[in-house]
Amino acid sequence: IAGITQAPTSQILAAGRRMTLRCTQDMRHNAMYWYRQDLGLGLRLIHYSNTAGTTGKGEVPDGYSVSRANTDDFPLTLASAVPSQTSVYFCASSDSGQTEAFFGQGTRLTVV
Amino acid sequence: AQSVTQLGSHVSVSEGALVLLRCNYSSSVPPYLFWYVQYPNQGLQLLLKYTSAATLVKGINGFEAEFKKSETSFHLTKPSAHMSDAAEYFCAVRRGSGNNNDMRFGAGTRLTVKP
Q1: Mean pLDDT of A72-86
Q2: A34 near A20, Cβ under 8 Å?
Q3: Considering only CA atoms, which of B11, B17, B15 is closest in space to residue B115?
Q4: CB interface of A with B, residues 72-101, below 8 Å
Q5: Does the pLDDT of residue A91 top 90, yes or no?
Q6: Any chain B CB within 8 A of the CB of A61?
Q7: A3 vs A36, A46, A63, A94, CA distance in Å?
Q8: Are A71 and A14 in contact (CB under 8 A)?
Q9: Cβ-contact B70, B79 below 8 angstroms
Q10: CB contact under 8 A, A90 and B108
Q11: Does B60 touch chain A (CB under 8 A)?
């Protein structure tokens, strides 16, 4: 079934550790996004990529980095995790920037 | 910049009753507007979208929303709630001429359906 796959589904991480959240899509969408979801705040954009080889900062980019080496993969890295990065992370993609976004199932990250 | 306000973080209705979830937006340019639904432990799924065509938009699962420019609103309705409608609902806005990296989400409204 075509869609977006995120891994891991959940993770408990010690503060200060490095962590990469994986996201792969098989829909050949040009644009991909990373959001974090926090209670009472909805979804906030961390980073995005409108096409392979390019990335941009969203609303809350600090402490996160991304890369887009190819169309299908868009990993999100936390270089040194802090407790405030405890959240549910969603990867999404869209055919271009113009159509609606499709979301993965999410990664629940707890930083202790 | 665009923004969205969802009125009511929690809404509770009885099965068979009208569902009304409120969304007001702010945008300096013509917007695209979206409603997404999130079931427990799942990602977001598009319910419906407004992209400057008909102001009354019909979506999946019997939901619809009406774009009212004069009220800057895009409220979501369903005539008769089902137990399966219990979920979190998010309204989102972006510039019609922009990209999805411009998209901004509301804080969400949790819908509870009572038997």
Answers
A1: 97
A2: no
A3: B15
A4: 90, 92, 94, 96-101
A5: yes
A6: no
A7: 19, 21, 27, 11
A8: no
A9: no
A10: no
A11: no
Facing residue for A33 by CB, picked from B41, B100, B108 = B100
DSSP state of A85: G
Q: Give me the count of residues in chain B.
A: 115
Residue A97 has pLDDT above 90, yes or no: no
Which whole-number Å values give the CA distances from A16 to A75, A89, B99, in the listed order? 19, 18, 34
pLDDT (0 to 100) of residue B69: 92
Closest approach of A92 to chain B, Cα-based (Å) = 9
Q: Is B79 exposed, middle or buried (0-12, 13-18, 19+ CB in 10 A)?
A: exposed
* pLDDT profile of chain B (115 residues), mean per 10: 90 97 91 93 92 90 95 97 97 81 90 96
* The pairing of beta strand B109-114 with beta strand B10-14: parallel
CA dist A22 and A72 (Å) reads 11
Structure tokens at A82: 């802090």
CA torsion through residues A107, A110, B3, B8, sign = positive
Cβ of residue B42 closer than 8 Å to a chain A Cβ:
yes
Residue B115: CB atoms within 10 Å: 6
